[in-house]
Amino acid sequence: MPGRLYVTDAIVLSRFEYGEADRVLTLMTPGHGKLKAIARGVRRPTSRLGGSLEPLAELRVALARGRTFDVVTQVSVGHAWLHLRDSLEATATAWYLAELADRSLEERNAAEPLYALLRRAYELLDAGMAPGRVARWFEMRLADQLGVRPEVDRCVECDRTLEAGQRFRWVPPLGGALCERCPGPPHARTALSLEALKLLKAYQRLDVEALAALRLPAAVEREAETAMRDFLRFSLEREARSLGFLDDVRVGR
């Protein structure tokens, strides 16, 4: 890409302190993908960048290409999503989704669909949609974008249609639900209720307005949550570190 300077929309996925006053940011951008950028002097009280270069917001960032990190030269806030920050659970969920996005991207590869997905998730959290519903909606669509859409209609081993009256198991290494006729691998012991299976189907098929209107027992929501967390843990090959904080927040509600 020609030129040393460029401007892009960006969402901060993570950050860490660097040196005495700098901060290194992992930015997600639609056209440039994931990139590392340094904000020099941002931790000084007099910094022009400090008040704007924040996570959980969509930013307009001017950057100069650098050898190790690109350098932030200007920043303005496009969408602050301030209501999202009013709820600790919504905030913790936003950090969790940012971590999933971070782990799903390679640096410097265009990321328009995933950028739009994360942006939409933040809009939903800001609008007050239940954080758990937003998380499951995001997780299912992230799996789609990664090319690992979980199978919830047919047995992942025998390909028979999954029907009411059967017992099901959830087997992420095989790609989804297993019917009662198939033994599956020895470790496939996670039972999945018909209600949870239906909810997973809803997350694949319904739009966000329909999902927001669902009224379901908390136990079914937890079962679907566990299933999707296990699925993404296997797909991304590690547990999201931010889940510990999110779960602590929910326990203390």
What tags apply to this protein structure?
OB fold (Dihydrolipoamide Acetyltransferase, E2P); de novo design (two linked rop proteins); single chain; 2 domains; elongated; three-stranded antiparallel β-sheet; 8 strands; 253 residues; 22% strand; five-stranded mixed barrel; 7 helices; alpha+beta
Topology:
Blueprint: E1 5-18, E2 22-29, E3 33-39, E4 58-64, E5 70-79, H1 88-104, H2 112-126, H3 131-146, E6 168-171, E7 176-178, E8 191-192, H4 194-205, H5 208-212, H6 218-236, H7 242-251
Parallel strand pairs: 3-5
Antiparallel strand pairs: 1-2, 1-4, 2-3, 4-5, 6-7, 6-8
Q: How would you describe the overall organization of this protein?
A:
The chain is an alpha+beta fold and 253 residues long. It is 37% helix and 22% strand. The chain contains seven helices and eight strands. The protein has helices at 88-104, 112-126, 131-146, 194-205, 208-212, 218-236, 242-251, and strands at residues 5-18, 22-29, 33-39, 58-64, 70-79, 168-171, 176-178, 191-192. Strands 1-2-3-5-4 form a five-stranded mixed β-barrel. Helix 1 runs parallel beside helix 3 (131-146), helix 2 runs antiparallel to helix 3 and helix 3 packs parallel to helix 6. The longest helix has 19 residues, at 218-236. The radius of gyration is 20 Å and the shape is elongated. The mean pLDDT is 93.
Shape: elongated
* Backbone CA Rg: 20 Å
The unreliable regions are: none
What's the level 1 CATH class of the largest domain? Mainly Alpha
Amount of helix = 25-40%
Q: What is the helix tally?
A: 7
* Main sheet: strands, sense, barrel: 5 strands, mixed, barrel
Distance between the termini: 48 Å
- Name the structural class: alpha+beta
Strand content: 15-25%
User: What is the correct CATH architecture of the largest domain?
Assistant: Up-down Bundle
Number of strands: 8
CATH topology call of the largest domain: de novo design (two linked rop proteins)
Helix-strand string: EEEEEHHHEEEHHHH
CATH evolutionary superfamily of the largest domain: Recombination protein O, C-terminal domain
Question: Can you give the mean pLDDT?
Answer: 93
Strand order of the largest sheet: 1-2-3-5-4
Number of domains: 2
